[in-house]
Amino acid sequence: MNKAIDFASIFLLFTLFPHQFIVRVSSSSSPIHPNQGYADERILKPEQEHVHEVHCSRERSRAARKVIEEYLTPFLEQENYQLSSKCRLHPENDMFRDQEEHKICLGFHDWKCGYCKKSFRDEKFLDQHFDNRHSNLLNLSDGKCLADLCGALHCDAVMNRKFSRSKCNPAAATRNKHLCESLAESCFPVSDGPSASRLHEIFLHQFCEAHTCSGKQKPFSRGGKVQKSIFVVVSGALILVLLPLFYLFLYLVQRDMKSSTQELRRISKMGRKSKPS
Ligand SMILES: [Zn+2]
């Protein structure tokens, strides 16, 4: 009889509080291991709870970095100029730089995390992985968000090739021009010498002058890496075509000179022979 009562009470408890039983069983029998597969949602949830709040766009920071590399770095290299760490364009002032340098691209659909060697089929999944797993490595101190400089650096022109000037907002253009000029001032102080002065001037032409709604000035008016490489290819092709033509011209001139000297010799010989008679 007692056994029957015990059994009935256990059954009653089980039917009234099934949730508690299931949770206890699942948590004790399968502990969540940090190195389990990524497809498992159970490990993604606690991971997301620890995500640092980052108020800086990774995508726009990447666009800003691309603009700097394509349209400013060639001029810095030309002048052999080192940016000061106070300059916000300095690579150290980009919070995503270290993570971007830890991206391993093995193919169009083959990306690898340089920190933990996990593979991903798309760059955006690797970006998400950095956000979820390695956000603790980000330097979140002030002034490290490169995306904040996008207005001055014309990131939209690089991110969206169909960028339309009809959307131009005069107030935003003025604000961006001020930001642009302050960058020129802090990164290339005229008092630092002739190289800094030249780069200051180039920076104003390249980035700041286009911050107007008149549409007359285009950004990157001084060109960049892409245009330079095209110039190198075109001039190389021209040299390849013109060099053989130049040697052909030289050969023809020399041949003409040779035949004319031979002709002169022949005439002078004939003259000497005809003299005694
Ligand atoms: Zn990783």
Automatic annotation (TrEMBL):
GO terms for molecular function: transcription cis-regulatory region binding; zinc ion binding. Keywords: Membrane, Metal-binding, Signal, Transmembrane, Transmembrane helix, Zinc, Zinc-finger. The chain crosses the membrane at residues 230-253. The keyword Transmembrane helix applies. InterPro entries: Znf_C2H2_type. Residues 1-27 form the signal peptide. PROSITE patterns: ZINC_FINGER_C2H2_1 (PS00028), ZINC_FINGER_C2H2_2 (PS50157). Residues 111-136 form the C2H2-type domain. This is C2H2-type domain-containing protein. It comes from Arachis hypogaea (Peanut).
